[in-house]
Amino acid sequence: MKKAITYCLILSTLMALPALAKSKGTLTGKVNINEATVEQLAMLPGVGASTAKAIAEYRQKNKFNTVEDLKNIPGIGEKTLAKLVAYVVLTGPTTAQWIKTPNVAKADKVSTR
To answer: Are strands 31-32 and 88-89 parallel, antiparallel or unpaired?
Structure first.
């Protein structure tokens, strides 16, 4: 029983890692929604692991012809689509990456003696 609980805790922590990374950085580059991996899709703002998987499953049957086609994915509506538009492309390489944002709070504590 303890092993099962430990496994569940580890799994839930691993699933939360993309969300933690998103909160401490800035996304740059583009994600090709027709070719990106599930991990690359999960980097998009407002897209978690389950939505990334749904995008990948959808494109197995339907190519994305427009960015608006993302609204066919459960959980992606107008608000989420508005967050995605700047980062999504239909062709070309996926170049997206998270850039770590400097911790401003530590910089404010620097002594100026």
So the answer is: parallel
What is the pLDDT, as a whole number, of residue 108? 52
Backbone angles phi, psi at 88, to 5 degrees: -110, 135
Q: Which domains does the chain have, with CATH numbers?
A: 2-108 (1.10.150.320)
| Confidence (pLDDT) at 102 | 75
CA neighbor of 87 nearest in space, from 15, 10, 24, 22: 22
Strands 97-100 and 25-28 turn out to be antiparallel
In the structure encoding, which two tokens stand for residue 103, read together? 């911790």
**40 within 8 A of 87, measured Cβ to Cβ:** no
Report the pLDDT value the prediction gives residue 81, as an integer from 0 to 100.
Answer: 97
DSSP 35: T
Q: How many other C-beta atoms can be found within 10 angstroms of the C-beta atom of residue 4?
A: 8
Q: What is the pLDDT of residue 101?
A: 78
